[in-house]
């Protein structure tokens, strides 16, 4: 059976999609005009992109909704929940998100190669590793109040943050499983179940927050508990779908002992993926921490926090686009279609430029009113207005690098991206932020200018790598992985 699979790679198709594994022939009888190819690729990416962007925004919104409910309880609960949520993102969610992204490489290429059974194996292996990793992360959350106090945070706020994070611990394990299911379905271009489950979960989450926070008066504990329950609801919906639908009949064959094989190799790739993501996430959070050392730290921290929240909200749009190109590139490379992968990347770059330009223009247009959504103080509103053009530029660059990073994950370049991200943010970005803010006395705007420098370096490095890439070689490498019988046993 396995020898038959290796001899002929059956490749799944999206609507109107044609495949070929011959890397060296021009296949004129199979190719339409370049215009038609581009049109078909744009349709595929929009078909995937709309749901994936929505899923990213919906899943991100759970914490925002909880914090909004807590905001009606007073300043101290709001400060504690905000600090706790930020700490949870840095010390938990971003790590699991990064580790789960390893499946974008493994599942995406396996699906493109027609090795459907391997998607279930890879996913189960990932769940074991991510659930195991959640145990030490949950201990960090349990003692988060102590850690925040050691970091110099206000004792009362740190205590509130610790309570909030402790009640989110059950949801951490659900979040780990959710990241695996997201990549499992995304790699098969089966994205609408993710959209439906995320939409239902968000609606239920609003009800849960109202019940626990308002009706039962559990306070911030209730808001955190609502997050935990909501993540488990999302997981439960996807478990039912994956086990009952015919769409996953070939890719999910139940629990398998094969998931226990080659765990070390997966851990290496997952670790590189996590570090790649975390290097970027942590640099943005570090900017907010540095703002507390500036003159008038209350104003600077408030404005930088607003800037960061705005950035993360828009970033989720770019994350969705990054997931699209990761799936498209990994599918095409797994199928041995180098030109298809390159065309997908070029189309997505154009989409990213259009998206980034649109968001940038809107950001500048709303600069004088955006701060009013967060504060009634004139100095905050005016400072936010000054920051918005910088946010527009950083959002454009961030969206561009998200697409290139997604393509890199599709190719399996995580280790290379670790080096790029470290150099971009910690050799260039943070030192420039310190230079602009504390030496040249530009203040909070200087900190954000340092981030922009890091984004620019990251983008230039990724562009250079893509221009120098032999895509035929990448496609052969991906195909050879699944022609090796050792991978299948």
From TrEMBL:
It comes from Lupinus luteus. Residues 19-29 have a biased composition (Basic and acidic residues). One of its GO terms (molecular function) is xenobiotic transmembrane transporter activity. The keyword Cell division does not apply. Belongs to the multi antimicrobial extrusion (MATE) (TC 2.A.66.1) family. GO terms for cellular component: membrane. GO terms for biological process: xenobiotic detoxification by transmembrane export across the plasma membrane. This is Protein DETOXIFICATION. It is found in: Membrane. Keywords: Membrane, Transmembrane, Transmembrane helix. Its main location: membrane. It is a multi-pass membrane protein. InterPro entries: MATE_euk, MATE_fam. Residues 1-29 are annotated as: Disordered. The chain crosses the membrane at residues 52-73, 93-114, 126-145, 157-178, 190-213, 225-244, 265-284, 341-366, 416-440, 446-468. CDD domains: MATE_eukaryotic.
């Amino acid at each position: 059976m396995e020898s038959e699979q290796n001899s002929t790679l059956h490749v799944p198709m999206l609507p109107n999609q044609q495949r070929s594994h011959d890397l060296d022939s021009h296949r004129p009888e199979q190719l339409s005009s370049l215009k038609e190819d581009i049109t078909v690729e744009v349709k595929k990416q929009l078909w995937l992109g709309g749901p994936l962007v929505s899923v990213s925004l919906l899943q991100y919104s759970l914490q925002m909704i909880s914090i909004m409910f807590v905001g009606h309880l007073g300043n101290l609960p709001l400060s504690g929940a905000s600090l706790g949520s930020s700490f949870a993102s840095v010390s938990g969610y971003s790590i699991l998100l990064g580790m789960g992204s390893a499946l974008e490489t493994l599942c995406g290429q396996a699906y493109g190669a027609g090795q459907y059974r391997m998607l279930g194996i890879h996913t189960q292996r990932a769940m074991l590793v991510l659930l195991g990793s959640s145990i030490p992360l949950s201990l960090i959350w349990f003692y988060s109040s102590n850690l925040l106090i050691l970091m110099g945070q206000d004792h009362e706020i740190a205590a509130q943050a610790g309570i909030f994070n402790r009640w989110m611990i059950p949801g951490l394990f659900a979040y780990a499983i959710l990241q695996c299911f997201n990549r499992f379905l995304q790699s098969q271009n089966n994205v609408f179940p993710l959209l439906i489950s995320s939409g239902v979960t968000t609606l239920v989450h609003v009800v849960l927050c109202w019940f626990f926070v308002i009706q039962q008066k559990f306070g911030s504990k209730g808001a955190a508990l609502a997050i935990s329950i909501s993540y488990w609801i999302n997981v439960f919906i996807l478990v039912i779908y994956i086990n009952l639908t015919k769409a996953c009949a070939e890719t999910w064959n139940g629990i398998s002992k094969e998931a226990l094989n080659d765990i070390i190799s997966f851990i290496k790739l997952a670790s590189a993926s996590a570090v790649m993501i975390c290097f970027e996430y942590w640099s943005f959070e570090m900017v907010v921490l540095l703002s507390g050392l500036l003159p008038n730290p209350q104003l600077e921290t408030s404005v930088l926090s607003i800037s960061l929240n705005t950035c993360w909200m828009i970033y989720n749009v770019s994350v969705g686009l990054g997931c699209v190109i990761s799936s498209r590139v990994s599918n095409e490379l797994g199928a041995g279609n180098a030109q298809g992968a390159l065309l997908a990347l070029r189309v997505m770059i154009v989409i990213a430029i259009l998206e980034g330009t649109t968001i940038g223009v809107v950001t500048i247009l709303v600069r004088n009113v955006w701060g009013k959504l967060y504060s009634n103080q004139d100095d905050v509103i005016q400072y936010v207005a000054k920051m918005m053009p910088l946010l527009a530029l950083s959002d454009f660059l961030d969206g561009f690098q998200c697409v290139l990073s997604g393509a890199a994950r599709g190719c399996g370049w995580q280790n290379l991206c670790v080096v790029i991200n470290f150099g971009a943010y910690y050799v260039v970005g943070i030192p420039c932020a310190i230079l602009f803010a504390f030496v040249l006395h530009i203040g909070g705007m200087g900190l954000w200018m340092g981030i922009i420098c890091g984004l620019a370096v990251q983008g230039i490095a990724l562009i250079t790598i893509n221009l120098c890439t032999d895509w035929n070689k990448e496609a052969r490498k991906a195909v050879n992985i699944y022609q090796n019988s050792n991978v299948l046993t």
